[in-house]
Amino acid sequence: MLPNSVNTPLQGFRAFFTRLIDKQKMGDKRLKQALSIIRWLALAAILTFLIYRLSKIGWNSLYESRPTSVLFYLISVLMFMVMPIVDKINYFIMTGHNIPEGIKVFSRKQVFNEAIVSYAGETYLCPKLAALPGHDTRKALIAIKDNTLISALVSNTWTLVLILCVWWVGRSDILNEIWNLSPILNGVFGAFCCLLYLVSIVFFRKFMKRAFREIWRVAAIHGVRIIILAALQIAQWKSALPSEEISFWVMFLAVQTLVKRVPINGDLMFLSVALLLSGFLNGDGNTVTAMLVAAAAMNQIVQFAAFLLTSDVKSKSRESRPHYPLAEHAAAE
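User: That's the sequence. What structure does it adopt?
Assistant: C-alpha cells below.
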C-alpha cells in the first residue's frame, strides 16, 4: 500500500484529469449546442429572407405562374431516389454486405443531409454499417470516409466542368454577379474549396487504402449519379419553361451546384441566391421565380414524406427485425 505522501498526489492528479475530461465533455456538448443553434438561426434567416422577397413579388402572382406539368413534380421524387440507390450500390461494393432495409436507411440519410445539414446523414449511417458482419465502428468510419472522398472528388470535378461550360456558352456574367454579392465570403469559401480539392488529389492514395479497381467502380457510379441528376434537373426546368435555350439551363445548373457546396439546406440557399441575381430573370421573372419556389417546396415535401415513411413504426413484427440500439440512439440525436 502506498504511503499517504504518495497516495495524496496520485489522488490529486486523478481528480485533476477527471475534472479535465468532464470539462472537455461539457465543452463538446456546448459546442454541439452552439452549432445546432447557429444552424437553425441560419435556416430561420434564410426563410425570413425568402418570405420577405416572395411577398414583395406577390403570392397570388407566384401561384398563377406555378408550373402546371405533372412531370415537373414527379421528377422531384425521381431525383430524391437517385442518391439512396447509388449509396446502396456503393456501400455494398465497399463492405461486401447489403444493409438490412437499405433503401429505407439511405433515404433517411438523404433527408438528414439535404434537409438539415451536410454529413448529418453519415452520423446516422455509421452505426448501421458497424452492425454489419465483420464490421465495427472503425471499419464503418473508413467506408464512410472513402465513399465521401470519392464522391467529393467527382463532384468537385463536375463543378469545375460546369463553370467552364458557363464560360464557354457566354454566361460568365452570372458568376460575376455571384462574386459581387459578397467578394470576401465567396473568396474565402472558394479558396477553401480549391485547397481541399488540391489536397484530395495530391494525397488521394494516402487517404485511400482500397484497390484502384474498387475506387474506379465507386467513382464511376458517382459519375453516373451526377449525370442522371443533371439530366433530371434540366428536364424538370425544361418542363416548366420549354422555350429557354440550353445555355440558360447550364447556367442554372452551375449556380445550383456552386450554392449546394454550402453545408445548409441547398434548395433554400439556391432559391435565396436566385432571387438576388438579375441574370435569373430572363423573360418572365415571375415564371422563373414560381418555378424555383415550386421546386424547392416540392423537394421539402418529398423529404418530409421520406422522413415519415422511413420512421420506425411499432408493430408485432418489429421484434423479428434486426435491432441496432446504437443506430437508434444516433437517429434520435
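The radius of gyration is 24 Å.
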